[in-house]
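thoughts on my protein:
***
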Amino acid sequence: MPHRTLVTKELAEFFGVLSHPHRIRIVEELRDGEHDVNSLRVLLGITHSGVSQHLMVLRANRLVSERRQGRRVFYHLRQPEIAKWLLEATHFLERGSAEAADLRKAIVKTRKEWT
């Protein structure tokens, strides 16, 4: 497979993994350290099984790893730089939202929470 084809295919898969809002939130919640499924469930406001399914996708694509402590499983980012990269991506949203005041306000609030 030609190198550019291989790289673009991998990038498309990577962006696909991040194409769900809950998975982006999980990455951001793991920015400052590890969490277990229950704490992520509370932070995201979704079901335990929903969190587990999203973590399964993130784990299968090598974005998160787990650490077991007794019966509890804690998840952390394999490459914490991804959270910084997502924060930087908000600049692209902001540039396209000149006429959308609500989106601009939401971006500013989100940046404060993520930093």
